[in-house]
Every structure is written in structure tokens, then in C-alpha cells.
Design a protein that fits this description.
- There is one protein chain.
- Helices cover about 20% and strands about 25% of the residues.
- The protein has about 260 residues and is an alpha/beta fold.
- It has a single domain (about 1-250), classed as Metallo-beta-lactamase, Chain A, CATH 3.60.15.10.
- The chain has a 7-stranded mixed sheet with strand order 6-5-4-3-2-1-14. A 7-stranded mixed sheet has the order 7-8-9-10-11-12-13.
- Helix 1 links the parallel strand 3 and strand 4 (about 55).
- It is globular and about 50 Å long.
Amino acid sequence: MRLTVLGSGICRPSGLRSSSSYWVEALGMTIRLDAGAGSLHALARYHLPWTRLDCQVISHFHIDHAGELPALLFAMKYGRESPRDKPLVLVGPVGLCSLLKGVDQAFQRRLREQEFPLEIRELEPGGETEIGGVRLLVAKSNHTPESLAIRVEAAGRSLGYTGDTAPSEALVDFFQGVDLLISECSLLEKDGRTAHMCANDVADLAARAGVGHLVPSHFYFDPVKAGLEQILRKRYDGSITLARDGLALEVVPAGEGDAG
């Protein structure tokens, strides 16, 4: 299993960080987690085979996580240079079908009508689905009514993605023992106003869940200038890699290390 960070930023425009998106390869399958602004062109920038994408997962419907889903479908319909007949599976919370209907109405492009099969799978918290032998499991996250956290399992490897969330006891259980966790780390310290996690929340989640490798992301601050890694190490003693756009990591069992 291999991870490439397409977007480690937020809704605020940045020359360094696109909005949330992560590319996962496992068992020959390609899966993208979220579709934030800038992440579609990042696929080409990092030489990833976007035309062969097998599955697009959406964690929730905020624009910085789902906004380029229409752009992906538009590119699949008009931007490919070769035919495609294998299905593209779209996975997301209940309401994904309605979102796509609204997109078609807004843009008048019939993006759900592709020359290949387009399959939409809506999952409720606690649900799961399979893509070519790769298991996708979801749990409720504390952010929006529909928001989901995601766990990817394949060939004895596991990767977790919090999406956006406030601290949650349920996520400690959901991410128990994952080899790598992509965790939102929006805040350096609690602000009491937003449904997001701060640095100590992220470290506590990783430590209590027994995460092998922590990859904090989705920053509203400069993680390097703030000394985020040092703050996290006060509560979590596993491997830490601060997310940055273009970062590539192998997902390996805890304790075996990883190669970027």
C-alpha cells in the first residue's frame, strides 16, 4: 500500500498546499480520498494515472473536500486521451447521489453519463464496501451531519483518514492499530469554536489508537514554524511525518519503518 499526498491544505488559497486529497494504491487498485481544490491537477503534477482511478471517496460535502468532484468527472468525460471501459466507483456519505444530481443541474453537463460505468455507493456510519479486494470502512466523525472517517485495509496493511473532525472516542476504536493515520490537525491549540482537532487531540488519538505512523495534515497554521512535530512527540512516541503536497510514503506494518 502506498500513499501520495495531493493536498494537505485547507480552504484558504496557498501556493504550497492544495485542499484535502490523498491518493492510495493497494492490490493494483487506485483510490483517492477527498477531492479538494487543486488536487485534480496535482494528479498530473505527481505523475499519477488519474485516468485509471478506480475509486473516489468523499468524506463530507464541504467544498475544500468535495469541490473538485465535478472537475474529476468533467476530466474523465472530456479530458482523457484513451478509451476507458472499467467502472469508476464513487463512495461517500448518504446524500452523495443528491449532490451529483445537483452538480448536473448546475453545470448542465450530464457528468453522471460517462462512456464507462459510474457506480455510486452511499455508506452510513459503520458501513463498508470493497474495491478489488481493498476494504473501505467508515465511521461517524464529529464535523458535519454527514461526515465520515475512513479506514482502508488491504493485504495486511491499514490506513486511516480522519477527514475533518472534532475529538471523538469512537475514532479511537475505529483507528485502533492502523499502520498509518492521516489526521486533520487544523489547530495548534483548542479554540472552542470549530469542530476540528488541535495538536494535542491528534497526538492523543494516535497514542490511544496505537497508530504506527502519524501523518498530520489540513493545517490552518505553519506546522514547521510552530514546531508541530515536537509538540506531538510529547504525547505520541510513534513515527511522525508532517504532510506536504507531493509526499509519498509506503504503508508498512508498525515498527518496520517506511520509505518516502
